[in-house]
Amino acid sequence: MKYYRYTLCVWLAMTATTGMTATDTTLATIPTESVFFDEFPTITSVTRLPQPKSETPAAVTVIDREMIAASGARDLADLFRLVPGFQVAYPRGHRPAVTYHGLGDEYTRRMQILIDGRSVYGALFGHVSWSTQAVAIEDIERIEVVRGPNTVSYGANAFLGTINIITRHAVKDRGSSIKLTGGDHAIRDAVGHYGTGFDGGDVRLTAGYAADDGLGELPDDNRTRFINIRADIQPSTHDSLLLQAGMSRAEPQEGYYGSAFAPPTATTLDAHSEQIRWQRRLATDSEISVQYFHYYRDVNFSYLSNPIPLGPPFGTVQLPVSYNGTANRDDLEIQHTLNPWSDWRFVWGAGAREDRVESLPYFSTTATVNSHSSRLFANAEWRINPNLIANAGAMLERTDFTATDLSPRLAINYHLSNDDTLRAVWSKARRIPSLFEQYGHFSFSYQGIVLEQVYNNQGGLRPESMNSAEIGYLGRFPRTDTTVDIRVYRDKISDLISPVIIPASDLYDGLAVSFRNEGEVNVDGVDMELTYQPNRDNRVTLTYARMHATASTVSSAAVISQQQLEDSVPQYSGSLLAMHRFGSNWSGSAGIYYVSKMLWLDSNTAVPSYQRLDLRVARRLQISAARGEVALTVQNTGKRYEDFYSEQFFERRVFVSLSLDFL
Fold it and tell me: Could you tell me which of 212, 307, 213, 305 has the C-alpha nearest to residue 255?
């Protein structure tokens, strides 16, 4: 028994590191709160059924509260450096880009992002506006990251992966607290909480402010304010109700120093969301839930350019430029979970969504551009015997501008022992085009004359398609206090929604960009996550990813070449987060992050590989009737590195945080 476990682990690790050179051995670590000898954590984000990690039909990384605190991250996106195969960069200081095994740009279009089960990718571009999510990092209970397609459970944007951000139940935050952060780069953050109980429930109010000066080479200062309220109500022994609402305003700078066309300009991004979820326990083995949420986002970004010489007949003029627009989303979903037999569990449901966008600049019309979609989903778990579990599921989804698509998944988990599990998964996923990819028209005009037609999308797009196959191993080694999670996969992506050059009737160059289906990419890779936890005071987790991409069927009209698609997938990436408690009052952590050379698809030049070291030290405090913590964090202790674009750098940041809980 011992022999095959260690042989299997070593073989998979060797597969993961084949071709790695001495300069590419930076790995990564992620601590977990549960002690090593606890059971594998329960996951809800893969099939919508609560399952131990050893029985989910996908690889999952869990980022818990201790990891979040030890990382020293100030924003949500920065946390995903802790996940094997993820890349994070900042094209502007306030606008992070997050992707899983490459193929990334400024917009996270190929991943589903959920906050308490509410989808937060945008209706206009299909992206995530990280800066307008009214969620404090301190309110997060844990983050479950599904590494691989999960369209079967959460729809078309769960293409490369799913991030499910789960916030804390209001009962856990009674009383009041405050956290203040200040440091260089004009970092000024504050967040406050107040929670109380009432007959039948609890409520928590959170308000926050965050500010910094972004990246040094850009005018991208940002100020963000938000407020969030959550109520958890128990009307009866069988019913529970979640009510949640949030509002935010971000005021980032856009533009470029020295640019005549796009000078530094103040922007306003307003957003609000409302969510209600009712759950009823029908029996000990059956539950029904109904959820509705609404999301609104408004962009106010318009300005006059500096004087630009256009030549005859215009002369030198100031061009009016606008990127204004509003987006609304309404989503209703019902879900039923049942356990009709001892060896079978089911979850099924249906949902409907409406997206509405109004933007004269992006669609060349004042009319509302909308999209309606509907979905029907089901997942089944069959425990064939105590050691063999089968999972099967499918999502049937339809939108106004695509045919009905079926996304299935089949998986087998086999327990070699209580501590060792093999997993084999096959799935098919879709990504539906965004409203802008389908209908967008964007141009610069003056006195009714089109000076430059930037986008002129022709429509008729098909969804992107992916066939994914993986084998995985999850093992626990009590003698060495270690757990290992390895995923070996092949993703075959076709019908990429790609920008191409087409003729246009403008005065600038007679060309425009349109999206169409062309290009295929195969990504082969290995993700590995290793956690060492000898006791509650020490944790080390290594993560490592090795990837290789092959692209084909890219035409000469494509804006992004075949080579650029391949270069967007970094060959290696990894992270390390180690945490140690020094007695009862002091703690420290160190994070090391590494990404090999890669190209973000919005830029023309690949950025070199980088290594980054973050350090954090904290001391617990007891001040009169308050207890808390003071912490010093240094992000990127070494030299600055190129981040998203070449000649755009992430520099060292030092800040101090003081948090107090009032008893």
Answer: 305
Distance of CA 378 to the CA centre of its chain: 24
Query: If DSSP codes are grouped into helix, strand and coil, which group holds residue 137?
Result: helix
pLDDT score, position 216: 79
CA distance 452 to 445: 7
pLDDT in tens, 326-375: 999 999 999 999 998 999 999 999 999 999 999 999 999 999 999 999 99
292 phi and psi angles, rounded to 5 deg: -130, 140
Amino acid at 9: C
* CATH code matching the domain that covers 2-662, chosen among 3.90.550.10, 2.40.170.20, 3.40.30.10, 2.60.40.10: 2.40.170.20
Say if residues 210 and 224 touch (Cβ distance below 8 Å): yes
Which tens digit of pLDDT belongs to each residue from 268-311?
A: 999 999 999 999 999 878 999 999 999 999 999 999 999 998 88
Name residue 407's beta-bridge partners.
395
Query: Using one digit for the tens of pLDDT, what is the confidence trace for 97-148?
Result: 999 999 999 887 899 999 999 999 888 898 888 888 999 999 999 999 999 9
Residue type, 54: S
The full DSSP string for 568-610 is TS-SEEEEEEEEEEETTTEEEEEEEEEE-SB--TTSSSPBPPE
- Distance, CA of 545 to CA of 531 (rounded, Å): 15
Helix (H) or strand (E) holding 430: strand 420-431
CB 483, CB 9: distance < 8 Å: no
- Rounded to 5 degrees, what angle do the CA atoms 185, 543, 409 make? 115
Backbone φ and ψ of 58, nearest 5°? -170, 160
Question: 3-state class of 614 per DSSP?
Answer: strand
Contact 466, 423 (CB under 8 A): no
Backbone angles phi, psi at 23, to 5 degrees: -85, -5
**How far from each other are the two terminal CA atoms of the chain, in whole angstroms?**
52
Beta strands in 432-481 (DSSP E): 441-446, 449-456, 464-477
The whole-angstrom separation of Cα 441 and Cα 523 is 32
Task: Kindly report, residue by residue over 591-613, the tens digit of the pLDDT.
Answer: 999 999 999 998 888 999 999 99
For the stretch 1-13, pLDDT in tens is 443 343 344 333 4
- Strands (DSSP E) contained in 213-301 are 222-233, 239-250, 253-254, 265-266, 268-283, 286-300
Rounded CA-CA distance 111/277 in Å is: 23
* For the chain, percent of residues with pLDDT exceeding 70: 94
